[in-house]
Amino acid sequence: MPSQSFAFEPNGPKRLTLSWGAFWKNFTVAVDGQQVAEVSPAELKAGKDVALPDGSTLRVHLKQGFGNAGLELTRNGQPLPGAVNDPASMVKNAAYLLYFLAALNAVVGAAAVAFHVKVLENIVIGVGNIIFGFIFAVAGFFTMRRSLVALILAMALIAVEVVASLVMATEAAGQPGVGGIFLRVGFLIFLARGVTGIRALKAKQAAPA
Amino acid sequence: MTPSPAATCPLHAAPAVGTCARCGAFTCEGCSRWQAEQRLCVSCFARLGEKPSRQATVALLLSTLGLCLGIPGLIGLWLGVQELRRIRRGESSAAGESTAELARNVGVVSLVMLALFVVWLVREFAP
């Protein structure tokens, strides 16, 4: 049975535990190990307010739309730290994805060069991937520091790669790699959440205390 | 530690909900801050800072450079591990935890890159 724990404050103790079964059945909310509510899948999809023992209200909402799927959690209207709708988590996850792409490109490129892997060399994987990886890593570094420009540039790079692979496939009169294109579009959607996160954090910073 | 019901926060005279893990002062709900799951008072929290420490940022920068340049990644890895230890001991801001973790993980990838570079050197230039 999957479960996930959350803190009520950033870096605080994880007092809230959510657990659920297959297809979000038997969804329970527990605070400090004590169950406080059970939420049906229908309620979860519609969004449900749960009263917590300290008098605050937790809202659980299972979003299933394209590009914003996930379990959104707010307490008294504020996103819970670590939840999918928490701006800081959105930015962190976007930076992690960029570093993942960086590591993947760099290691595969370096392996192709070091071991002269014919299969990889045939699909033009090599030094270019190492450079590509480095660019993603630099974008990840600045995204971690909440740079909107770096994140948007990284997204533009992925978008250019999608267009380039389509053009190259057309010129070679072949079929474009549909799986690869879908994957990259998925990355773009995920990174777009990072843009939302950075904007939300900057708006919060600019707002008077 | 949970204080007795009579304890009050020295700043707001509100009922205390706990004590600062660093200085022991009573804190109310409004002025409790958290660092590595430990409650801190506002002044102790401010002392650690609300942003990632310089060491966490430098660690990530070096690890990032290490993806292409190798050696800086090893320094980034070492600094990231050190910073994580400091954060868990409560000596550095927890705001830098994910930065330090990332520095450590990217540092490990830099180590792999360095190993691949050595393999390339051996294969290309060994007699």
The neighbouring-strand order within the major sheet of chain B is: 1-2
- Number of E-type strands of chain A: 8
**What oligomeric state do these chains adopt?**
heterodimer
- Encode the helix/strand succession of chain B as letters: EEEEHHHH
Q: Main sheet of chain A?
A: 4 strands, antiparallel
Order of helices and strands of chain A: EEEEHEEEEHHHHH
Count of alpha/pi helices of chain B: 4
What share of residues are in beta strands of chain B? Answer: 5-15%
Distance between the termini of chain A: 41 Å
Broad shape of chain A = elongated
Mind summarizing the main beta sheet of chain B?
2 strands, antiparallel
Secondary-structure-based class of chain B equals mainly alpha
- Quickly count the domains of chain A: 2
Work out the strand percent of chain A: 15-25%
What would you say this structure looks like, in words?
The complex is a heterodimer of chains A (209) and B (127). By secondary structure, chain A is an alpha+beta fold. Chain A has 2 domains: 3-79; 87-206, no CATH class. Chain A has helices spanning 41-46, 87-115, 118-122, 127-144, 148-171, 178-206; strands at residues 3-6, 16-19, 27-31, 34-39, 48-51, 57-63, 70-75, 78-79. In chain A, the strands form 2 sheets. A 4-stranded antiparallel β-sheet of chain A has the order 1-2-3-4. In chain A, strands 5-6-7-8 form a 4-stranded antiparallel β-sheet. In chain A, strand 2 and strand 3 form a beta hairpin. Chain A is elongated. By secondary structure, chain B is mostly helical. Chain B folds into 2 domains: 1-47, no CATH class; 54-125, no CATH class. Chain B contains 4 helices and 4 strands. Chain B has helices at 42-48, 54-69, 71-88, 97-125, and strands spanning 18-19, 26-27, 33-35, 38-40. Chain B has a two-stranded antiparallel ribbon with strand order 1-2. Chain B has a two-stranded antiparallel ribbon with strand order 3-4. In chain B, helix 2 (54-69) runs antiparallel to helix 3 (71-88), helix 2 packs parallel to helix 4 and helix 3 packs antiparallel against helix 4 (97-125). Chain B is rod-shaped. Chain B starts with 17 loop residues before the first strand and ends with a helix.
